[in-house]
Specification:
152 residues, mainly alpha, 4 helices
Length: 152
C-alpha cells in the first residue's frame, strides 16, 4: 500500500504543478514578463492537458489511506483552485486585451481547459474532505464523544 500512496501522491503533485504552470503562463502581465505570448501559450496548452488527464485519473483512483493524505490533498487542491479561479476570472474579463498580446482564440481554448482544471480541483477537494471527515469519525470512541481535552 505504501507504493500506491507514493504513486498517487506523485501523480497528484504533477497535477498541481501542471495546473499552476498553465495558470502562471496565462496570468496577467507583471512588471517583468520574461515570456512572450507565443511561448507562454506553447507552455500553457500542454500543461493544461497534463493537468486534466492526470487530474481525472487521480479523481478516479481512491485516496490512499492515512489522515495526512486527505488533509494535505484538501489544502493543496483548494489553494490551487483559488489560484486558477483568480486567473480564469481575470482572463474571462480581460480576454486577450492586455499587454501580453495573446491570441483571442487561444485564450478561449485555455479558458475551457482551465474550467476543466477547476472542476478536477473541486472534485479532489470534496473527496479529500469527505475522506478526512470519515477518518475522524472512525477514530472517535464508541460513545461518539471525544475524550475530554482532545480534538478529533
Amino acid at each position: 500500500m505504501r507504493a500506491y500512496a507514493g504513486l498517487w501522491g506523485t501523480m497528484f503533485g504533477v497535477v498541481l504543478v501542471a495546473a499552476v504552470t498553465s495558470t502562471a503562463m496565462m496570468g496577467p502581465p507583471g512588471r517583468r514578463s520574461y515570456l512572450d505570448a507565443e511561448l507562454a501559450e506553447a507552455v500553457a496548452n500542454p500543461a493544461s492537458v497534463v493537468a486534466l488527464v492526470l487530474g481525472v485519473l487521480v479523481v478516479l483512483l481512491p485516496l490512499p489511506p492515512g489522515r495526512s493524505f486527505a488533509a494535505a490533498t484538501e489544502t493543496l487542491a483548494i489553494t490551487v483552485l483559488v489560484l486558477v479561479g483568480a486567473v480564469v476570472a481575470y482572463r474571462a474579463v480581460v480576454g486577450a486585451d492586455d499587454d501580453r498580446e495573446f491570441d483571442a482564440g487561444s485564450v478561449e481554448a485555455w479558458l475551457l481547459k482551465a474550467a476543466g482544471i477547476l472542476v478536477v480541483m473541486t472534485l479532489l477537494a470534496v473527496r479529500a474532505d469527505l475522506a478526512r471527515r470519515r477518518q475522524s469519525v472512525a477514530r472517535r470512541p464508541a460513545g461518539g464523544r471525544s475524550p475530554r481535552g482532545t480534538r478529533p
